[in-house]
Structures
1.
Amino acid sequence: MFPLMTSGIWFVLLTISVVFMNLSPLLMVEGEQQVPCLFIMGDSLFDNGNNNNLITNAKANYPPYGIDFPDGPTGRFTNGKNTADFLAELLGFDKYIEPYATVKGVEIFRGVNYASGAAGIRDESGIHLGDRINLNRQLRHHKATISHMSTLLLLGNKTLTKEYLSKCIYIVGMGNNDYINNYLMPQYYLSSKLYKPEKYATILIQQYYKQLKTLYRYGARKVAVFGVGSLGCIPAELDLYGTKDSICVDSINSAVKKFADKFKPMIDDLNSNLPDANFIYINITSIAIGDPTAIGLTNLAEPCCEISPFIAKGQCKYNGSACSDRASHYFWDGFHPTEIPNLVSAQRAYTALLPTDAYPFDISHLAQL
Ligand SMILES: *[C@@H]1O[C@H](CO)[C@@H](O)[C@H](O)[C@H]1NC(C)=O
Ligand SMILES: *[C@@H]1O[C@H](CO)[C@@H](O)[C@H](O)[C@H]1NC(C)=O
Ligand SMILES: *[C@@H]1O[C@H](CO)[C@@H](O)[C@H](O)[C@H]1NC(C)=O
């Protein structure tokens, strides 16, 4: 009856039906993998190797990146694990989610990480650094994954594929580069000449809304959307726009806040307009509240690694040095946090500490739906 069915397909069928029956002996040996799959879309905060073979300066597959990661430099833009890695752990996955660039075969059923350094909501964001996988392209990659899944599943049963995809968690973190590598770089991009901050924020959120709706059309029902933080306080922006004693560039924070303030209404719109949708908002600004010294972070201003003076100014210098007290530095390079803030972000996104950390609820609740 199914002459084309190979043992590989049977393996997938078995695994999938086991997940659906919620007995899951194959996937939950150590207990508690809370969802069958995790898909990740985003920028360098979540990227785990998708830029390695692209022609771009937005890369992190060289020392000292990964100095505290078991596999060394992998393309993660930090010293150790990133927030997406920690979220996978908190959700009970025994291994991080593979990058789209290298994921193979039935691995796609656990989920795929599509994130790409320098990528944005807008196609052009980050182009001065070279190639990058912007959100529209990440969505096309996801579409390709789904079509591959449906081929493996019951020789192309789309209903079953949709059912499976509705049980996955999707983590999306976008927008940072639409400021850092677009609006805040008037020498390369026209956006700040064309739009005032309020108008730019509106345009961005409208495009993001459409892209998240596309993700929903592709079967996503449990989506955690990470907001943008205080970009005016990162070393690379202070370097460009700061005055001698400033801790943050207020004009940048105020422009970015106009965008951040539109997330909650967007989440409400998505949830009320799309049947069975469960979108949640992770508030990075709220998650940043707390006493950093309580977790050993005493250096909140200086990057830990030696900074490259060249084109991707703010990234670590190729083969450059790294500080030894990495556990006390908030910033790893000019843009990205060290592993410890990444862990805190994941923990508070998973289990909210303050009521403002996640809206309307946190990722642990999203997993239980
Ligand atoms: C697809 O799978 C579903 C659920 O097992 C089943 O009800 C449906 O008949 C299948 N559709 C096709 C076209 O095989
Ligand atoms: C995000 O957190 C900040 C800091 O607590 C707060 O001012 C803001 O209102 C929060 N935003 C939302 C949408 O909850
Ligand atoms: C970087 O370091 C590696 C390992 O020590 C060495 O083989 C390589 O030549 C160095 N490259 C540059 C450009 O310094």
2.
Amino acid sequence: MTETIAYTKPSITELEVSYAEDAARHGWGSKCYDYIIKFEALFRDHIGVAYGIATSSCTGAMQMGLAAMDIGHGDEVILADTNWIATAAPIVHLGATPVFVDILADSWCIDPEAAEKAITPRTRAIIATHLYGNLCDMDALLELGDRHGIPIIEDAAEAIGARYRGRAAGSMGLFSTFSFHGTKTLTTGEGGMFLTSNADLYEKVLTLSNHGRARQQDKQFWADVVGYKFKMSNVQAALGCGQMERITELTDRKRAILHAYKAELGSLNGVSMNPEPGHVLSGAWMPTVVFDDNLGIRRDQIQAAFKSARIDARVFFYPLSAQPMFEPVRENKTAWSICERAINLPSFHDMTDHDIFRVCRVVEDLVQG
Ligand SMILES: *Cc1c(COP(=O)(O)O)cnc(C)c1O
């Protein structure tokens, strides 16, 4: 029987296992933060920012960053309608309002013009999610952010390895967040990172991340503000240190898989994939195929074709505003249209050329009817 092709799967070697084992055996007492401190330093240096705080998830990192900006009731935060729910949930939890705007047809990331039109006196931030490893139009976003005095925040959960004019994704906003969930390019099982080069914001998030206990506070069991408990464990960080030693290998492989797909599918009429304009290096987290509207190929048909080929491909994000807890924003036409006719292709580190060939056959058969 043909084997099922998974859509993501982490690459864990003896190196990661040996660090995790060391943390489990010895990383206690006075050593209980050693791997965490090391992982934070390796990661922030890799991205090129001054400060990093390892967290239990990207969602937690986002919530603490927004909380440190004092975002709450009456405030609005602009983000793309095409997003994972994790980007919107922290805004809602803080009592603020997510404002969903449309995406660009080529990068599937937030449309800067739509973002600018959505600005009101209540707007406190714009979140730039680098979707599937593609890059937001950071020149336009940073420029309009400057002009309106509104900070740009990067949700870089999907963008490890991505670069924009030579700058790493996650190094350009007021702060950025990363995810090390098991499906991401670098994994610690669950986990995330808050990054910033802003010293004040760093101090605030550090305090929030430690149950609201400021680091200068020498009274025991004394909190200065009501904070959070979104920390990463030492064992998870040990896995992360192993993954960081292999970060170039991990991101290069993602890009090689995207390029193998593009070599095979890029010339098919009516098919587009993750774009890489000259100033952009894609992180290639999720190689994605979008079928032109006029081909008439739709989600159910795409899913059925992959299912019968025993390939675990995933649907493109539904617009957040299409989901029951929000009001639909049908003006976000591109976000509402692309998700009807697109699919994420498998892209795990150890997939073979034959796996890629099998995936390409399904796409080709769909297009050629
Ligand atoms: C994975 C992901 C998150 C959430 O990451 P967690 O670590 O699971 O909280 C947030 N935003 C985007 C864009 C993601 O892809």
